[in-house]
């Protein structure tokens, strides 16, 4: 079943990257899935409508996001084919996309983003991801507590930039994690990234720089691993998230109560009404005069 989560009157529309599929796992548990880069990988990184994607997921009742992404490796030990659960981000985006649901409104909010991934969700995932990799038996490694550089793209790195990112402490590099993680934080959704290393970017002095063909070849080789991981992890995650309304995996719930500036006469009622789509916890019941 596909759900378009479309509301003609809402500013966070019209459409997410692809139709959102409501899928049933073998256990019968339902999850929401969509292709961030569009059906058939048809959307350039800088054109991904992250704003709409996260708003649509929130409107469907999603409470936790496990995102999958291809990444380049900035460290020798993280070889192509390896998996990683990053915990830190270096932001190298260029301000092309909206990075906040509050942009263009009269409401100001400053979400806490010191730890850009949901730490308890990442810790919970580590054991399950290792279990899935061990079950497959291909010897695929999992790396944790890594720093991912979010570059703008769509071109890959120059050698000089790739070396610089290593000197900054970067371990991985990709074109997807932001503004996705920032918007998930504002929407109070727990967010974690399972990354697949596809290449060594451009920092190795005696190797060719990365090509799109190399990336897709590694992704294809790891497709079965990613599917097994998703099937293993998501069933347990749903059970864990549903276990209690106060579940620790949902640590972001309520976080925006400390981030949104107090209501004042300077705030446009229409802006507050629009924000109710993604943050009904704070803006529901808003009426225009």
UniProtKB/TrEMBL annotation:
GO cellular component, one term: cytosol
Site (Important for substrate specificity): 157, 212
Reactions catalysed according to its record: S-methyl-5'-thioadenosine + phosphate = 5-(methylsulfanyl)-alpha-D-ribose 1-phosphate + adenine
Top class in the EC scheme: transferase
InterPro entries noted in UniProt: MTAP, Nucleoside_phosphorylase_d, Nucleoside_phosphorylase_sf, Purine_phosphorylase-2_CS
Enzyme nomenclature, EC number: 2.4.2.28
Record-listed substrate binding positions: 175, 199-201
Major location category of this protein: cytoplasm
Pathway as given in its UniProt record: Amino-acid biosynthesis; L-methionine biosynthesis via salvage pathway; S-methyl-5-thio-alpha-D-ribose 1-phosphate from S-methyl-5'-thioadenosine (phosphorylase route): step 1/1
Compartments where located: Cytoplasm; Nucleus
SUPFAM superfamilies per record: Purine and uridine phosphorylases
Keyword terms, alphabetized: Cytoplasm, Glycosyltransferase, Nucleus, Purine salvage, Transferase
Family stated for the protein in its record: Belongs to the PNP/MTAP phosphorylase family. MTAP subfamily.
Complex and partners: Homotrimer.
Purpose: Catalyzes the reversible phosphorylation of S-methyl-5'-thioadenosine (MTA) to adenine and 5-methylthioribose-1-phosphate. Involved in the breakdown of MTA, a major by-product of polyamine biosynthesis. Responsible for the first step in the methionine salvage pathway after MTA has been generated from S-adenosylmethionine. Has broad substrate specificity with 6-aminopurine nucleosides as preferred substrates.
Protein name: S-methyl-5'-thioadenosine phosphorylase
Organism: Armillaria gallica (Bulbous honey fungus)
